[in-house]
Design brief:
The structure is a single chain. The protein is mostly helical and 193 residues long. It contains nine helices and five strands, in the order αβαββαβαααβααα. It has a three-stranded antiparallel β-sheet with strand order 1-5-4. The chain has a two-stranded antiparallel sheet with strand order 2-3. Helix 1 crosses helix 7 and helix 2 runs parallel beside helix 9.
């Protein structure tokens, strides 16, 4: 049997999805495409180069981010999520209803003119956020991959997910925009934050 090791950006994405967070349960969901994108961006900026498993990944294969409408964006992350869905590792559920507070926060990030034309029920549907987590096959694979990490790296990964996945989206975006202003130069919402 071949020894498992973290050796590509898809593995990093799987580990982020698998890692426990605030709930301390593995496979803690990540809600929303924008959140997933910012978590992967922060993963590279703040974590990947500081833990042992990143040494097995050729940095030239990391996802490439560029400034876009909602801050740092990588088409490769979406492509990898799609690939992982196609091989039955990741599921993207249709969405999670937002609370009133989340709904109000979401208004900052989407076309306010459109929201104002919609009735509240339609607007709530408009703001359903996709939910990402691992399916059974992805869990089995990533559990083995996770087991190859040293304990301190598991702890760093869990702390990272606990810290950033639990933040309200506006807070997460403010943090990314203030710490990495070059990633927000194309943002349509930078001034709203």
């Amino acid at each position: 049997m071949t020894e498992m090791k973290v050796d590509n950006p898809k593995d990093l994405l799987l580990l982020l999805l698998y890692s426990p967070g605030q709930t301390r349960n593995v496979n803690e969901k990540i809600v929303g495409r924008t959140r997933l994108m910012k978590l992967m961006y922060l993963f590279y900026e703040e974590l990947a180069d500081h833990i042992r498993f990143s040494r097995g990944v050729d940095q030239s294969t990391y996802h490439t981010f560029r400034p876009f409408h909602f801050g740092p964006f990588s088409k490769e992350v979406y492509d990898d999520i799609q690939f992982l869905e196609n091989i039955n590792f990741v599921k993207e559920d249709s969405g999670e209803e937002l609370s009133i507070a989340e709904f109000a926060e979401a208004r900052l990030f989407y076309d306010e003119a459109l929201v104002e034309r919609l009735e509240l029920d339609e607007a709530e549907t408009y703001y359903l956020e996709p939910v990402f987590n691992l399916k059974e096959e992805g869990l089995k694979f990533t559990e083995k991959l996770y087991a190859t990490l040293i304990d301190s790296d598991k702890k760093r990964l869990a702390e990272f997910k606990k810290t950033y996945n639990s933040l309200p989206l506006a807070t997460l975006l403010r943090y990314v925009y203030s710490k990495y202003p070059e990633s927000a130069v194309e943002s349509k919402i930078r001034d709203a934050l």
